[in-house]
Amino acid sequence: MLKDLIIFSTFVKLLLFPTYRSTDFEVHRNWLAITHSLPISKWYYEDRSEWTLDYPPFFAWFEWILSQFAPLADKEMLRVDNLNYTSDATIYFQRATVIISELVLFYALKKYLTTNNMKNKNLLNILAASIFLNPGILIGNDLMCGIMFAVLLNFKHIFLYLAPAYFVYLLRHYCFQETSIQGTKKFSLKHFFFLGVSVIIIFLLSFGPFIIMGQLGQVLSRLFPFKRGLCHAYWAPNFWALYSAMDRVLIVFAKRLGWTLNESAIGSITRGLVGDVNFALLPQVKANHTFILTLIFQMASLVKLWKRPSYKNFLVSLILNGYSSFLFGWHVHEKAILLVMIPFSLISADNIALFRSYMILAVSGLYSLFPLLFKLTESTIKIVICLLWFILTFMGILSNLNYKRNNIKKYSQSNESKLSYLIKIIENIYMYGFIILQFFTGIVHQIIYKDGKYPFLPLLSTSIYCAFGVIYSWIRLSVIYFLGKDDENQEVNS
Amino acid sequence: MSKSSETVDNNGFIISNNDQDPVVDSPAERWLNWLGQTNLGKCSTVITLLFGIYVRWNVGLNPYSGQNIPPMYGDYEAQRHWMELTLHVPMNRWYYYDLEWWGLDYPPLTAYVSWICGKIGSMFNPEWFALDVSRGFESEESKLFMRSSVLILEYLIYVPSVIVFVNWWLASKSWQKRRLAVLFILLQPALILIDHGHFQYNSVMLGLTVWSLNCFFYEYYVIGSVAFCLALGFKQMSLYFSPAIFAYLLGKCIKNKPQGFILFVKLGVTVIITFVIMFFPFLDSVEHISQVIIRMFPLNRGLYEDKVANFWCAINIIIKLREMFEIHVLTRISLFTTLLAILPSCINLGLNPDKHRLVYCLANSALAFFMFSFQVHEKSILLPALPITLLTLDEPFWSSWFNNVALFSMFPLLKKDRLILPYFVVWFMWNWMGSFVQRDVKPVVLRYISWASYLVMAVIHFFDFNIDPPKRYPDLYIVLNVTFSSGIHLFMLLYFNYRQITLPYNLDEKKDKRKAE
User: Fold this and answer.
1) Which residue of chain B is at minimal alpha-carbon distance from A3?
2) Chain A partners of B61 at a C-beta cutoff of 8 Å?
3) Residue B135, Cα to own-chain centre: how many angstroms?
4) pTM of this prediction?
5) How confident is the model at residue B167 (pLDDT cuts 50, 70, 90)?
6) Distances A349 to A19, A276, A408, A477 between C-alpha atoms, Å
């Protein structure tokens, strides 16, 4: 069955060859060129292209390995000054590398299927989890988990968002061992040593060459470009999007009531480009503010993880960490929502409450990615794919949950309180609202504002609407997590 | 889901002499089983339809016929031009207007549909169809519009007809078998690549034909014949089917006396009225209607144009017929052989107008016309491909072999259109889904023959991509392709004739008697 899935997904991707190539294409072509044609000492200094190398060294090595095969397709793509080069052979080569590296992903998923006792329903999660590249989360062995995560961090430092959860879990679960006396844990120096040394070795392997050359500062400045501004170009649906929107609303009021404003700020955030953001009325937000906020919310979930470091709690706190970084982080890209969605999908089939939270997150998160595919030709594809994915994962999970529930106990209406019924209705209305949103941003907006007035309005409304969904699902999950009972048996039954 | 040889239906009647045991467990069957297990069976049709849209849309993103190739461009420009012309030129000049630049050469229904498309397209951007100045107009948006028009028309007409067909044809089988059939039929590579790649509206004609079949199954003969007349009115190519349809209806009339005679009159009147309505604007003078007919049937173009996988083109390698005979002699030779080829199957159908026999006869009639008729285009292979694809679950081995060869025979055309990648992807995907290449057949030697044929196809492709043809024979690979394909097509003609004649007789009557009990 899994083999079928792999073959089928390869066909699906092959069909997509003639579609729109985002700037990512040029980004990766550039990185192939840099790693192939330049010596290591120049990798993090090269800036002829605007897409400078801003991933950690392991990813650079990955590009280097790929670039060894590039001459088979088209040597010209490896010239560093060959900006925006797009020969057919180049396109085929890069698409092929994506497909092949995703085969690695499937290997990881296969591991998942064999280590946990999988029942049929979890196969549905394969589709949702198909972009996840972390084998660490899937392996029960703690030490390997830690090593894998360290490796992963050195590929894409976006996973730094999740690091605290890993750190706390590994520390608590691995480094503190059960003693013969019930309930107490003893700190194991040996395990701590193993973990610490393994992680340090990995980081040395990755950053070592650059430390020797004295380039560590440059590399770090490339990896963490704090100059880029609070909000990404397309406004990830996070807390700051709502914050900015609130600021805009208040500007209108302020003009009416004659309050003093920060005049320079009025034009800044709606440009849709990258740049520093200034707020007119609400307090300015700096990078350290976001950092502190993120940390505070992450701490909250980590406390519970520390108290009871079960695998289930680890997963949920991982998800919550991802949420906090996404919602409160600096210059968050919409793609980061995947970091939350994918681990969430692994537990979404466990019970109906988790499922509903996941559903809201998934729809909001996916929908917020739509503006990235703005060309009309691709919009049909994205709608079709999302519909297909939605039907398969949600209907499948839902029908299986109902099936299970009916088997276990008779579902009685009286069990459901009036409040939860109301909440359900509101959630459903919110979900259907997406259809209206799509209609509005896709067609109505173009008809009403034919002359191109308010060009930012569709993006703005998309961001805000999705932000509500993301924040709501975060709160919902937190409620489940913090108020849920610590039932060790749950892990066995899931 | 039982995988045993399905030669007997629930009522104990033999449906087919099909000894082909579907012991192969294909990915598509596994998929449907899984859907059934996870209680998603109800969604399977929607999923198939959505996936169908996905495949067609992606194929559509590739170049269309003549994209970016001035001065004449290709079939896409022809269709666009007809939308432009029907929009701006008065009706009585439609078949006269600038015949050198893609003059209208399909019957009026195509013109009316083009007019509707042109009207809708002009709402988005009138520049696409501005009279004369829009010749060779190419843009992202107009391509999107044109591609969408094909997709929407297909999903309005062809797709529902297939679903209704399958529901009747496989009514006594499991729901999985029906969904399976829909999946295989809707993902047939040839139609997708021509309609959504090369750019044509074949699915409208094919859909109308299937609707007429559906009507005949439910014994609505009058409506069915209207549907078929509409198909004829859309593309005159569907004449390939007409002997079979005619034989069936005639057989029905003769069988039930005296209601048969009334039916005969009713049908005659219906057909005449339908055609009069369709051609009405062009019936004002003999000269006008002759012009229309000449445009539809350009007999002076010769026995065949380009290379097509039929009998005449293959023979031409040895016997240069075009040099030996005058054109009117060739016309007669072709007419004679075509009649000879369709006679057995049509007489057989006329004497025994059974519903199952009808579908086989459609295949035989279309295949016979393809092999021996005048001015056949390689795209016409889509006509026999329709009934044969509808028979996919009844004849998995033969149907898939035919479709594979049919697609291969169109490769030179697709190569010219730069559709090589989607050609391979859709082709392999369809074959993988149905595990068609691994299908069993008795006698087993046929399986090896089919594998040999696939090997030949692979070799021709390999040589085509890697080694330049010798200077003396620049079309060597095309000729090889055509000769090989026409051989297989001839073989198929013989097989399907054989199958039609050996179908059980009086099946419909037994069914009706059973129902009455």
Assistant:
1) B27
2) 18-19, 377
3) 29
4) 0.78
5) very high
6) 33, 41, 16, 14
